TrEMBL record:
Residues 73-343 form the G-protein coupled receptors family 1 profile domain. GO terms for biological process: adenylate cyclase-inhibiting G protein-coupled acetylcholine receptor signaling pathway; G protein-coupled receptor signaling pathway, coupled to cyclic nucleotide second messenger. It comes from the Eukaryota. It is found in: Cell membrane. This is Histamine H4 receptor-like. One of its GO terms (cellular component) is plasma membrane. It comes from Acanthaster planci (Crown-of-thorns starfish). Keywords: Cell membrane, G-protein coupled receptor, Membrane, Receptor, Transducer, Transmembrane, Transmembrane helix. The gene is LOC110982642. The keyword Ligase does not apply. InterPro entries: GPCR_Rhodpsn, GPCR_Rhodpsn_7TM. It is a multi-pass membrane protein. The keyword Transmembrane applies. One of its GO terms (molecular function) is G protein-coupled acetylcholine receptor activity.
Amino acid sequence: MNSALMVTPRWGRSAMNASPAAIPWPLTTVDNSNWLQGENAENGGWYESEQSPGVEYLISVILWLICSVTVVGNVLVVLAFIRDRELRLKPANLFILNLSVSDLLIGLISIPFFNIWRHTVVWVAGEVACKLWSIIDYTATTQSTLAIVLISFDRFMLVSKGLQYRRYITLRLTHILVVASWVFSFSLNSIPILCSDIVLEPWVDYGQDCDFAILYHFAYKLTTAVFSFVIPFICLSVFNVIVYNNIRRRSSGFHMGRSFRLNGSTVARNVAPQSRGSSEYRKHRKAAITLALIVGVFLICWLPWYVYKLVVLIALNETINNDLMNAFVCLLWANSAINPFLYAVTHPRIRAGLIACILFCIPKTCTPLHVRGGLRSNSYDHNPQADRGRNRPATALTRCNEELQCNNQGSLV
């Protein structure tokens, strides 16, 4: 063995598995006489930093900032769902909640443990903590990808099925899909980790490192790459292309002359659709915009990481460019921090729920928003004028003021 070599990843998962939390930070050329330990040092050796202390501190601060925003944002989203029963009754919203929960786990488990590990250099928590953290980390990151696929599937069904959407996407089916995705994510990542030391000869010292022999096998890397990226990416592409083409076709139809048959006679419709068709078109267009934002940000944040993984897999090269991985990891985890803001921008009811949670306004008698955007509260006097006021769409500031007014009237329980 040469006296100096490029230390391969301490964790084989760092190059090819679903989670970025396993990346050794950073990789560098070191003197193996001082740093590499034991006969399996090539796989589990220590490393020293090639970055300046200032860069290391900057990376750490960025990760802690992402972690804080991720936790706070997704906790507020979960609280908004808890306090507003109407949010939980719509299948589309449950898919969003599913994504928020997986992002919350990333903020609570994946990022903090990884950032602490960067500073301790060696793993000091032992075997049980290593396996538990790895399973939760991998499951959450895989589930984030599947959650985006489920959201795309839901928007695809809404646009393609139209008025029959509720026949197909029921609360029961939504619960089944969400639970099945979590079971799949957990099984895909937990079984190899738990069986690694049983199937293969163990060589990891869990007092120094957190690694698993099975994660270095090409078959495992290929399997995780296919199920964590290739198949989800194909599904996302198909769903989004169909949704885009459907919305574009309907948009063109609304501005072109066309006719339809009514009671045996042909009636010309050359200008605008009837109110029902126009309302349906606006709903589908809004769904497409929401989908485009969530999926677009997801691809921007995750695609560089997955493309790099595939390049490493195809090239059969475990060498990792440290600068690239620093950027990819920060970008990838930033997606979990950005998502709550996307929900607030695209979903008025969630936005009102977030504002109410921030202002600590949680009255049981005040529902943040009506399903169609208006505020509904039992504290209002029931009169036509009040009803007309409630049915008008309200701005975020108006909703917030009305919530505060409701609170001041003594409806806080």
